[in-house]
Design brief:
- The protein is built from 18 helices and 15 strands.
- The chain has 567 residues and is an alpha/beta fold.
- Strand 12, helix 15 and strand 13 (489-493) form a beta-alpha-beta unit.
């Protein structure tokens, strides 16, 4: 349910905070006080198009925040939040939407989200009905789900049917992956060639890098040889006074004077260690210079192998690992194609078997829907008759859309649409084509009464559901709104005293001038204020004793009805 609403800088609303309650919340007020602005604000935060003209004059930013608490279907909502990587805080959901002249921003639990995500989440939390809006119940695609909610038999069959449908589609995908016989033969030839090519290449891990190093050594062999010779001669001293000769001379000179200074022995030891290390370095350089394979490198073989590896990389993957993965997949695909005939025979048998089961289940659901539609239609007709549409005709149009298993959908083989004829002599039409706001409002109220136990949405919002009605019908509308509110939160804007008297909570929307600016305020009414508002809605003057008695009578009748329902 909606527990909190915060509106800032929307039209003539500067700042408005509203705490809403469970049950039937009725909002009323003078014409032009801003009732429609409150609904527009709610619709905006629930995902309606951002209308920049709603930004309060003189302001650059407008925002609306709504808090949902005690969510009945929170497990379903939580799944959407987790999928969208939105933090979940107990069973509370905070939806915020801001807009400027240039952009709008959506947040759920403080995280910025796309508008599409916001809409998908709030669609599970609240349903708004206005005279010109046909929301979830007027979407033909939802009609089959509404009808299915009337029959527990569908709930028993549908999950098993959907599992079978998933398996059937998987089998069809497997069959399609084999292609035709000629195509399979072409694929077998191609895969055989590729597998042989990779096997023949016998690629070793890091082989190309090693080959590139050898190639680099070959092409820089003269530089390497020259440097090695210079280094060797600098150490050896064969062409002059080298490092080793200099070390030997230094060691000899120091040894001659150790009798005078014994501490020099440590220096001699260190120099001799250096001599040993340099001698080893000299020998290593010699081996690289005269015993290495710089001169024996087969550069043609190296270049040919590098080119071969590059061609393989271009075909099958940049790295040895990628080529190996390609090889494994190609081997598996080849094995599958080589055994295709026997596998296809097995898959076709499975397909035919599950096709038979699916079509039988789809037919069962079709029969159940046809049967339950009669009971559903009667319930709707009874409700709309009580609401003053005694001559209206309601029908559920069910068409079996396919006898072909390939065209089955997640709900079977049926298309379902609700049809209505409000007046005698008129043919039934799709709900979307009904023009009268009053008739649409009453039908929606009837439908919501009938589906109250199967619709999981916590909050229903009605904008002037009482349009075009009065008298006895107004009382019936009030009773039906209350019926809905016993299992969920209802928020309704009204002009009728009958609805005002039936409320669990009343709010007055009023417009006042503050510091030269027109502003809208919403106030929670106490018991005395409720009576005054019922009097105003009834057209009574403020101090009218008759008007007050009438308001008391309306409130008493409403309380009696509510008490009878609660029993």
């Amino acid at each position: 349910m909606i527990s909190y609403l915060n509106i800032k800088n929307i039209a003539i609303i500067s700042s408005l905070e509203l705490e809403l309650k469970e049950g039937l919340n009725i909002l009323s007020g003078e014409t032009g006080a801003g009732k429609s602005i409150v609904i527009d604000s709610i619709n905006f935060v629930l995902g309606d198009r951002a209308d920049r003209s709603l930004i309060r004059y003189g302001e650059t930013t407008a925002s609306v925040e709504v808090v949902f608490d005690n969510i009945k279907n929170y497990s379903e909502v939580k799944k959407l939040l987790i999928d969208a990587d939105i933090e979940c805080d107990d069973d509370q959901v905070i939806v915020t939407r801001k807009m400027t002249v240039d952009k709008s921003e959506c947040r759920i639990n403080r995280k910025v989200v796309p508008l599409s995500v916001l809409r998908s989440v709030v669609s599970l939390l609240v349903d708004t009905h206005t005279q010109n809006e046909h929301q979830s119940l007027l979407k033909v695609s939802n009609h089959i789900r509404i009808l299915d909610g009337f029959s527990p038999k569908i709930a028993e069959i549908l999950p098993i049917y959907q599992q079978n449908l998933t398996e059937y589609r998987s089998i069809c995908d497997q069959i399609d992956s084999y292609s035709d016989k000629e195509q399979r033969e072409r694929e077998i030839d191609m895969l055989t060639y590729q597998i042989n090519e990779i096997e023949k290449a016998d690629i070793k891990e890091g082989e190309e890098e090693e080959l590139k190093k050898k190639r680099s050594l070959y092409y820089n062999s003269q530089k390497i040889t020259s440097a090695l010779k210079t280094s060797f001669e600098s150490l050896d001293g064969s062409s002059g006074f080298g490092a080793l000769s200099a070390l030997e001379q230094a060691i000899s000179d120091l040894k001659r004077i150790t009798t005078y200074d014994e501490s020099l022995n440590d220096l001699i030891d260190r120099l001799e260690s250096c001599h040993i290390e340099l001698s080893d370095v000299k020998e290593t350089i010699y081996d690289k210079l005269y015993n290495g394979d710089l001169e024996n490198c087969d550069i043609d073989t190296i270049e040919k192998r590098i080119e071969e590896l590059r061609l393989l990389a271009k075909k099958y993957g940049k790295t040895t690992e990628e080529i190996e993965n390609y090889y494994q997949k190609a081997t598996e695909k080849l094995d599958m194609l080589l055994h295709a005939e026997s596998e296809l025979i097995s898959l076709e048998k499975k397909k035919n078997s599950i096709e038979s089961i699916l079509m039988k289940q789809a037919q069962q659901m079709h029969d159940i829907r046809v049967e339950s539609s009669e009971q559903f239609s009667k319930a709707i007709m009874n409700n709309i008759a009580e609401l003053g549409m005694k001559n209206a005709v309601f029908e559920v149009n069910i068409e079996k859309s396919t006898d072909n298993c390939d065209k089955l959908n997640e709900l079977g083989c049926d298309s379902v649409e609700f049809m209505l004829s409000p007046n005698v002599g008129e043919p039934v039409k799709s709900l979307a084509k009904i023009a009268s706001g009053g008739e649409m409002s009453r039908f929606m109220l009837a439908l919501k009464n009938v589906i109250a136990e199967i619709d999981n949405v916590d909050t229903l919002i009605f904008d002037e559901i009482d349009t075009g009605i009065s008298g006895v019908i107004a009382r019936v509308v009030a009773e039906k709104l209350y019926n809905i509110s016993t299992s969920r939160q209802v928020i309704a804007i009204t002009h009728l005293p009958q609805l005002g008297s039936m409320a669990d909570v009343n709010y007055l929307i009023e417009k006042r001038v503050v510091d030269g600016k027109t502003m809208t305020f919403v106030n929670l009414l106490d018991e005395e204020a409720v009576l005054k508002e019922i009097m105003r809605l009834s057209g009574a003057v403020e101090n009218s004793e008759i008007g007050r008695n009438n308001a008391l009578e309306l409130k008493e009748k409403a309380n009696q009805y509510k008490k009878s329902i609660r029993k």
